[in-house]
Structure formats: structure tokens, C-alpha cells
Amino acid sequence: MTMTIWQGVITIVAVVIGTMLTRFLPFIVFPESKQPPRIVEYLGAVLPYAMTGLLVVYALRNTPITTGSHGVPELAACVVLVALHYWKRNMLLSIAGGTIVYMLLVQLVF
Amino acid sequence: MVTGQSPIDQSGHALTGNPIPDSTIHNADRRIAADTHTIPDPSSVADDGRSGRGSVQQTHSACWAALKAAFPLTIPICLGFLFLGASYGILMGTKGFSFIWPMCMSAFIFAGSMEFVTVNLLLSAFNPIAAFLLALMVNARHLFYGLSMLKSFKGLGWKRPYLIFGMCDETFAINSTAKIPKDIDRGWFYWWVTACNQSYWVAGATVGGLIGSHLPFNTEGLEFVLTALFLVIFLDQWLSNAHREHLAAMIGVLSSLACLVIFGADDFMIPSMAVMLVAFIVLRPHLDILKPNTESAANDDAVSSSSNSGIEHEKEMKA
């Protein structure tokens, strides 16, 4: 470590403040006691659907499409997961199935 | 507990052995029976006599019932966080930090990707302002999480600051989409999801910092468990909603895919959020039909959030 301990602590505190600002800001700007504007309520109703979509893309953002495995393990695992979920609708089963397929493929095949 | 049960079934079981007012028992039982075809346990009615025994006991059992409903949903996150947290702790260990550092950073920063970034910050020149700004940018997506949970976190008292503090991606994904049964205390449910997830992450990071890189089995690929979690939640939303919610979900997927192609994996988050925001504002006349759900949720404190009420409402319609 190149910094002193206190410089390290200050850096971490800065990161904590930055992170917490992004989490608390909406709740500070639109406090519990006041009714938020209609458009904010509308965004609050539609954003969860969109943010879940964004998180799926975010989680798969480093999939190598043109190099290495060409994303075959990811694709196969997602197909297995979707099929399992359509079939059984069991969250834990689908997650376990997809993850095991992915682990087997990256460890044994690619 | 792990196998063979959907989250709804689990919550259904959590119903039994828990004092609840008469009126909600009938409603909740009818709804759960319609949803999952489970037969309501008669003991839930027998337990009803306890409900008058003072508020401390009630709080206690509400807390316990919420844990039983919340914990199964966090199991995949437990796997993913122990693993990712451990790899983060190991990484810090290899850079010469004692386990105290990953332990404190995972507890206080509690934003996975930012903690990995902070390791590099600690190894470069001292610049707290740059660290602060970088944290703002990397975590900008939390702003949208907050907007989404404004209504759900309303009226939760002392639990609220911790729920906001601990709202990482995975916790948000569960809390914003979970179908919380009406007899489960919503504040405690959110609290347990948040607390379980954070404890997995801190435990993983601490253990990783302590043991270094001597893991007993080959864990390559285990990180996919969190990708799988997001995909399953996405699918669940897709399968239980109508075309307007599908459109909202597609806006999320398409805007982030387009920005991923244009800006690359490291810089696509903020542009995607901007595109999403513009798309939602432009399409508001078409999408704002979600409005009735939002308003019914505002009138009914028992309903956890607008999206939940929408889902539950539709389920009732189908049944």
C-alpha cells in the first residue's frame, strides 16, 4: 500500500459518502412527509421493470462474444435457466440449474 | 426448505403458526390458496387466539415470520456473495491488506463493484475527491432504485435508514419484486432481505481476507449465480405481467444493450439510465396506465408496493 493508513481511511470514507449519496438522495429530495410529483410516482412504478432488465445486461456485460468461448457457456446456461423456469417456475431450481451448467461448461469444456 | 418450493409456497407456510387478525386470515388464506393451490393449515386459525397478548410478542412473531418468508429468497445471493465476497477478500489479501480492510469496506461501502474499484484507488495516489466522484458515477443506478422504493419504504420508521443504506443490486432486485403475503410485516421482510444479504457479503469478504486463496474446490464460474438471479427475477416479472410492464422491461433491456454496444462494458450504465429516462418520459401517455395500481397502493397501507399490488391484483383476476 502506497498510502498511509489515514489516507486510506479518508479514501474509503469518500467512497462511502459517494455511495450513500446515490442511495439516500431520492429519499432526501422526496421526503416521506410530502407527496412526490406525479412523474416521480410514474417513474417509481415503471423503473423496477427496466432496472431488472438493465441488471441482466449488466451481469452479462463482459461476455466475450468475438473471442474465447464466444459466449457459448453464458448462452447455454441462460437457455437452460429459461427452460427450467418455464417448466417448473421454481426460482432456486432455475438458478441452480443455470449456474451448474455454466460451471460445468467453463471448467470442463472451454 | 431449498428444494421443490416456490417462494410463494414458502411464504404460504410462514403463514402458519403466526398470530394475525381475523379479517386478514381469511383474505390471505383465500389468496394464497388461489395462487399456489396449497391447503391452508388449520393451525393458523387456532393460533389466532394469541394475537391479543401484547405488542412485544406480536412484534417478535412478526419479525420471525418475516425472516421465514425472506430467507429462502436470499439463498442464491448467499452462494453468490460468499463466493464474490471471498474473492474480493482474497484480492485485497494478495495486495497486502489485512482482513480488517475488506471486512470494514464490505460493511460500510457495501456496493460490490465499487469495492473492487476502491482496491485500485487505495493503491494509487491519494485523491479523495476523485474517489468520491468515481463512487457517485459507478453507483448512479442507485438513484433509480431509490425512486422505485420511495413508496415501498414509506412509514417504516427506524428500519428505513438501514434499508436505504443496504440497498445493493441484489437486495433491490428482491425487495422491489417480491410478492410479500399480506400477513407478513413488510418492514421486517425488507429488513431481513437487506440484513441477510449484507451479512453474507461481509462474511465472505472477511473469510476471504483471512484464508487467502486456499479454497477447497474449483469455484470457477460460480459467480454466474448472481447473473442467474437477475435473469430469474426478470423472467418472473415477465411471466406474471401484461404488455405494458413488458414494454417497461424491454425499454430497460434494449436501452442498456444499445449503450453497451456503443459505449462498451465499462461506461454504459449512465448513458443507459439517461436513454431509459427519456424513453419513459416520451412513452408516458402509453405507459402511465400503471397509475391505478400506484394509487390503490397509496390507499392501502397493507400493500407493499405499486408493482406488488399490480402483480397480486392480476393473480386474483386470473384466479
Summarize the structure.
The complex is a heterodimer of chains A (110) and B (319). Chain A is an all-alpha fold.
Describe it.
The complex is a heterodimer of chains A (about 110) and B (about 325). The two termini of chain A are about 35 Å apart. Chain A is built from four helices and no strands. Chain A has two domains: about 1-60, no CATH class; about 65-110, no CATH class. Chain A is flat, with a radius of gyration of 21 Å. Chain A is an all-alpha fold and about 110 residues long. By secondary structure, chain B is an all-alpha fold. Chain B folds into two domains: about 5-240, no CATH class; about 240-319, no CATH class. Chain B contains 17 helices and no strands. Residues about 1-50 and about 290-319 of chain B have low confidence and may be disordered. In chain B, helix 4 crosses helix 5 (about 100-110) and helix 10 (about 170-175) packs parallel to helix 12 (about 225-240). The chains are: A mainly alpha (about 110), B mainly alpha (about 325). Chains A and B meet through helix 1, helix 2, helix 3 and helix 4 of A and helix 4, helix 5, helix 6, helix 7 and helix 8 of B. Chain B: It is a multi-pass membrane protein. Chain B: One of its GO terms (cellular component) is plasma membrane. Chain B: One of its GO terms (biological process) is L-valine transmembrane transport.
